[in-house]
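for the recovery benchmark. tokens below, seq after
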């Protein structure tokens, strides 16, 4: 069965089906301090009558009315702020009418309006993230039925100034003005005064972000009596459960608990803001319990580093207006310190794979031999292969094989060489790649990762690189993992594109590159990395050692397993 057209064509708001246990979950703006202990104790003492019978909303409605300075007739309790917004849109928006909103704001009003068959008008920000007052007011025209305003706005954190609200209200006669104040308790201000001045104002509040009841789904609408009566016709009569009601009552009675933690949250917010600015990020002013931070090209790095430490933050999609922005809920003070520790600026160790981490003698070298033999109808020695490799200027083993064949006067097409080579080496994961073995000790990367950031820059294809790293159970130590697939044509080693890319997209106080060829050393030198040579298993000669040093290698390791002791002995910035 197909749904109605508006539902079929719209994008939904999908959430994970199962919980992942994060050490610090700061991706959805929940209150990391949790509800007050009085709420927890109250929920421990639920009696059978409270869950056996349908709930009553009078006591909670009175508490909300008193808390915000209204009468009970001005209050409609809802299943979270989401149901409040949905109920208003269902009550007032006719098919073909429009919802007016910002182009960067909460998504659910748009989704609910589209379900109703409504049109969406999004007003763009001209400056990040200053409310575009004139453009917004000018867009209030006949077909606009609902105006959605969020103050503070999610995800930008900005508020709407009182003068702007009043300009909108002056022009919005006979239109619903829905003001979402989900985060307003953090700002300490509200536009609830306009409920008594205008009959078209609806204030939406939530218990999720401030009172830490997100899992119980509790919110409310504040408006005049007539509007509330209409909403009661539309919103399900028993949509809010009895446990949420009890929690809401106790939370309001113990509101001082929230005011206390709000001070801590604001202190932590300033602390995080200063820390992120030291990382050269753009931190936007926020009046909510989160920060919106533009990390530019380093956003993926920050996001990944935090996730590796089991810290969840929100990274916005590529191609969106918020690309490279992270929204970070303010955690506890201990959480702030965890973030600082996770993003501690450390040196970056970047590794080539073949000859450095992986012994490719029985894989790549075999594929070169057999590909050469396939076309030349004769064998070639390992010594001759290594001699050609030491010349430099050959981007990968396909190029090396072509060079050896051409030197012999044999000229198959490059495509033919690649196809034969890959059928021997890769063969969809069933080739001689399975004959590789690691060149590193078991604990090497576990030890290094405590003091350094680790990355890979290899001439392998992505599938082949991941295959080997996963086989030896070390992939998770490295970020980023840069392969031939990620490098533009003509930018392979010794061009420094790959190493420059890593430097531009990460944060470190020094960069090292470990390679086994003169192209690796040249690439590192051009990217202003500390150049370190590593002798491959098939060539531990003094000749190669001197060749690597002549290209700029600060020193040459017999094996990557010497790395720890070398780094401990040397001054890292002067290697």
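predicted aa per position
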């Amino acid at each position: 069965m197909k749904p109605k057209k508006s539902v079929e064509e719209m994008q939904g708001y999908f959430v994970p089906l199962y919980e992942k246990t994060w050490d610090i979950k700061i991706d959805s703006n929940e209150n990391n301090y949790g509800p007050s202990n009085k709420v927890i104790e109250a929920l421990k003492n639920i009696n059978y009558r409270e869950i056996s019978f349908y709930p009553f909303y009078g006591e909670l409605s009175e508490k909300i009315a008193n808390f915000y300075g209204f009468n009970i007739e001005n209050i409609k309790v809802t299943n979270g702020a989401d149901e409040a917004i949905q109920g208003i849109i269902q009550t007032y928006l006719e098919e073909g009418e429009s919802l007016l909103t910002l182009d960067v704001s909460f998504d659910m009003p748009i989704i609910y309006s589209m379900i109703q068959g409504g049109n969406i008008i999004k007003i763009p920000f001209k400056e990040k993230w200053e409310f575009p007052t004139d453009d917004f007011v000018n867009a209030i025209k006949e077909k606009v039925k609902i105006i959605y305003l969020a103050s503070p706005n999610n995800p930008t954190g900005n508020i709407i100034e009182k003068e702007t609200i009043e300009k909108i209200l002056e022009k919005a006669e006979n239109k619903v003005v829905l003001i979402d104040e989900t985060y307003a308790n953090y700002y300490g201000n509200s536009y609830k005064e306009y409920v008594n001045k205008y009959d078209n104002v609806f204030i939406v509040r939530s218990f999720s972000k401030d009172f830490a009841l997100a899992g119980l789904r509790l919110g409310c609408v504040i408006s005049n009596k007539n509007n509330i009566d209409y909403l009661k016709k539309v919103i399900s009569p028993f949509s809010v459960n009895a446990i949420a009601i009890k929690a809401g009552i106790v939370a309001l009675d113990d509101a001082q608990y929230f005011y206390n933690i709000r001070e801590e949250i604001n202190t932590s917010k300033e602390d995080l803001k200063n820390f992120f600015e030291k990382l050269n990020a753009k931190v936007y002013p926020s009046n909510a319990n989160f920060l919106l931070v533009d990390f530019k090209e380093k956003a993926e790095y920050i996001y990944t580093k935090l996730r590796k430490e089991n810290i969840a933050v929100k990274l916005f999609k590529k191609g969106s207006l918020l690309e490279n922005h992270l929204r970070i809920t303010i955690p506890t003070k201990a959480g702030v310190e965890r973030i600082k520790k996770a993003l501690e600026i450390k040196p970056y160790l970047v590794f080539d794979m073949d000859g450095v981490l992986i012994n490719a003698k029985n894989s790549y070298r075999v594929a070169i031999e057999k590909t050469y033999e396939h076309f030349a109808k004769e064998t070639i020695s390992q010594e001759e292969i290594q001699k050609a490799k030491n010349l430099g200027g050959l981007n990968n083993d396909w190029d090396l094989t072509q060079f050896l064949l051409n030197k012999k006067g044999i000229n198959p097409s490059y495509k033919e060489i690649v196809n034969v080579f890959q059928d021997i080496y890769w063969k969809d994961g069933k080739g001689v790649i399975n004959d590789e073995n690691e060149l590193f000790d078991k604990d090497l990367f576990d030890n290094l990762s405590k003091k350094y950031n680790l990355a890979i820059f290899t001439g392998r294809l992505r599938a082949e690189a991941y295959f080997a790293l996963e086989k030896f159970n070390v992939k998770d130590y490295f970020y980023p993992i840069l392969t031939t697939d990620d490098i533009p044509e003509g930018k392979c080693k010794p061009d420094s594109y790959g190493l420059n890319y890593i430097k531009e997209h990460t944060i470190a106080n020094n960069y090292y590159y470990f390679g086994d060829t003169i192209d690796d050393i040249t690439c590192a030198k051009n990217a202003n990395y500390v150049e370190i040579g590593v002798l491959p298993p098939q060539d531990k000669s003094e000749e190669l050692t001197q060749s690597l040093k002549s290209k700029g290698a600060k020193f040459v390791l017999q094996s990557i397993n010497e790395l720890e002791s070398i780094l401990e002995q040397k001054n890292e910035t002067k290697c």
